[in-house]
Amino acid sequence: MKIGFVGLGAMGHAMAERLLKGGHALVVYNRTRSKADDLIDQGAVFVETPADVASQAEVTFSMLFDDASTEEATFGKDGVATGLSQNAIHVCCSTLSLAQARRLRDGHVERGQTYVSATVLGRPPAAAAGELFVITGGAEEAVKHLRPLLECFGTQIFDAGRDPVQANLVKLSLNFMIYSTIEQMAEVFALNEKAGTDPRKIFEIMTNSFYTAPVHKNYGKLMVEHEYDHPGAPPVTLGLKDMKMFLEAGGDYDVPLPYASVVRDRLLSAISAGDADRDFVVLMERARQDSGLK
């Protein structure tokens, strides 16, 4: 199948490469062309605009940083919607506000185009290994048609419902659970460290008893080892963006989200402390600082 991919950041690049390795012909676009060089070496074709991608592909994926970049690449001049044929599908994998998710859904409907949201859980190494969790929202036939492609980079695919926005809300909700779990672990590690117990010992007990989920094992390990600056790490600013969007979603549906406010404030404190571009597990240091640890 001929596939298009718009947005070759750390996640998008890994996902696009998995599609190539799955035997699909690939057409790509990225604002910084050099990020596509190794994909071109593997057989991908680089084109000059998102519209060019969509005009040549049966399915066009987009994986962009935020609402603004997604809006521009989709409905802006030379955007995906300009080039998308009536029989093709646009699949957006970005983490977006619900307002932007609705704009994508409604904008494609107005143009008579097929649109699916396929948000993902996992970091770039998981994408490169084909081990993401994918959450879809969209028409049943379209989602079924996409499944072999999604399986190139996803180990499990979950269907959230027929409305694409449902997938976006699920992603924001699960991201909130990641950040709130990091906050819980940070407080527990700091308290026990203050009492003289090495956080590594707490991590060992925790992950060999009731708390065996990947979020505890993977993020907890980064926290107790103070790994806040490895390449490709998702920054604190990304976490803050997600929490703001999750709180907005609560406002949309009149649902109070008090824990989300705690996490947002912790992320803000990390930014104020100069940690904006560090891995968001650096929240560990804010809990340590509050407890008086150095």
Tell me briefly what this model is:
With 294 residues, this protein is of the alpha/beta class.
Descriptive notes:
- It is a single chain.
- With 294 residues, this protein is of the alpha/beta class.
- The protein contains 14 helices and 8 strands.
- An 8-stranded mixed β-sheet has the order 3-2-1-4-5-6-7-8, sandwiched between helices.
- β1, α1 and β2 (25-29) form a beta-alpha-beta unit.
- It is globular.
- The mean pLDDT is 97.
The string of secondary-structure elements, in order, is EHEHEHEHHEHEHEHEHHHHHH
Q: Please state the average pLDDT score.
A: 97
Quaternary state of the chains: single chain
Rg from alpha-carbon coordinates:
20 Å
Tally the helices: what do you get? 14
So what's the overall shape? globular
Number of strands: 8
* Helix percent band: 40-55%
- Unreliable stretches covering 5 or more consecutive residues: none
Strand-pairing-aware structural class: alpha/beta
Give, in spatial order, the strands making up the sheet with the most strands.
Answer: 3-2-1-4-5-6-7-8
Distance between the terminal alpha carbons, to the nearest Å?
55 Å
